[in-house]
Amino acid sequence: MRLLVSNDDGIRSPLLHALVAALRTAGHELFVVAPLQEQSWTGASKCRHRPVASAACDHGLGVPTWTVDGTPADCVNIALAHLLTGGPAAFDGVVTGINLGLNTTLGFINASGTIAAAWEGALHGLPAIACSQDLTYEDWHQLTETKSFAGLETARVAVENSAAHAARLAGELLPATGRGKFIVHNLNFPRPCTPATRVVRTVPARVMVPGLFSPAADDGTHRFVFAEPNDCSPPELITDLATVAAGHISHSILDYTRL
Description:
11 strands, 31% helix, nine-stranded mixed sheet, globular, alpha/beta, 259 residues, two-stranded antiparallel ribbon, 7 helices, Stationary-phase Survival Protein Sure Homolog, Chain: A
């Protein structure tokens, strides 16, 4: 398949590089358009109030690559309208990630830039998949800061296994979904992830999200802080959050025609 790949952690994310490598190994023709800098938690926002620069670049991915100095949604929109020959009609799907950390639950899915980039593909009529990886805080912090798996062998193996699953599932889910369906397949990979880790169909967990900002400081500003959400999902639901915690791959179908 001919695929557009993007993310929200930026062009230097080693998880993006792992995903591209796995998709190439699976035989897909790839084009990467990713944010120049990290754009986590930007949701589906677009840079309406400033110009956005795009540039062809070489980050060692082995495929045509561009950066966009904007949001993940900007990346996919600009890619399909201006950077890639043939536009949406020339592509078979959009794959985004692998995100540093989970994108599970109703409380966080809409905030995810990785899911928003996939959704932007769906808005152009393309089937789309968003991929995210559970990580320890220590691994997340090092990967965010250093953009490297150096000293993180367990995390590297888990991510490479997740990327292989993502490539396989892309080959299955994108053709089966077809065009014009307004569907995003949301995949969340556990830690650890092995070649034998099974995929479970899930729904987003229903969580209440507490205050995510600190009280006002002396200068009147608030700082972003992360607080654990309160899971109030009915016990009969097979949720993305519980499935990943149980060591399985979560596959939620985000069907925006059912909203």
